[in-house]
Design brief:
Length: 212
């Protein structure tokens, strides 16, 4: 009786086999690598990640950059925000958006989350479309809305999340929760990142509007 022996060749560094057996070695997907032989999965490069459900054959991806080109529209009761997708999607298609509302005093470095007073339509997190409507403003408050783009690997990164911010200042004699054209003092826009030490604005342009 003849004994048969199968000889499997180990993949050299930079290549991998997703499954054991006599199959051809594959080159590591983009933004991934391996420095050892005989590996079943390539490790992502620094700054790139693989989501839990991403197959080992998929390229490693990274979080997106900040949304762009924020525009606004105001009617008698609401502020409508729209923006363009980020210039860098991180190599993924599962983009969503979040809008974070902060109330700031005269010192813009002293801000707090708006809480339940402000309403967002349809919601402020998990947005598929690049727009949101904001309702129920309070007078004499500086509101900052930070718009973030996220994808399937954003939560795996420890880097600060980039965002585009727009600031709305309201001023109205009567205590009301409606933003009217007359209550708008100014709107400013900036791009920054959240850091452990606060907000780091990397680009800032301000457009001042007189009361309408």
């Amino acid at each position: 009786m003849n004994n048969c022996f199968l000889v499997f060749t180990a993949c050299r560094p930079g290549f991998y086999k997703a499954f054991a057996g006599n199959i051809k070695c594959s080159k590591c997907p983009p933004h991934s690598l391996t420095y050892v032989e005989a590996t079943f999965v390539c490790q992502c490069e620094k700054g790139y990640f693989r989501a839990e459900k991403d197959p080992p054959t998929m390229a490693c991806t990274r979080p997106p950059s900040a949304p762009r080109n924020v525009i606004f529209n105001i009617n008698e009761t609401a502020l409508m925000l729209e923006w363009s997708p980020p210039s860098d999607t991180g190599g993924r298609k599962d983009l969503t958006y979040s809008v974070i509302c902060k109330k700031c005093g005269s010192d813009t470095s002293q801000c707090e989350i708006c809480g339940g007073g402000i309403r967002f339509i349809p919601r402020h997190t998990g947005l598929i479309n690049s727009s949101v409507t904001v309702l129920d403003f309070v007078s004499h408050v500086n509101y900052t809305f930070e718009i973030e783009a996220m994808n399937g690997v954003s939560e795996l990164s420890f880097s600060p999340k980039p965002f585009t911010a727009i600031t709305v200042t309201t001023d109205q004699d009567a205590l009301t929760k409606l933003l009217t054209p007359a209550s708008l003092i100014s709107i400013g826009m900036s791009i920054g990142t959240d850091t452990p030490y606060g907000t780091d604005e990397t680009v800032g342009t301000v457009e001042a509007l007189d009361s309408i």
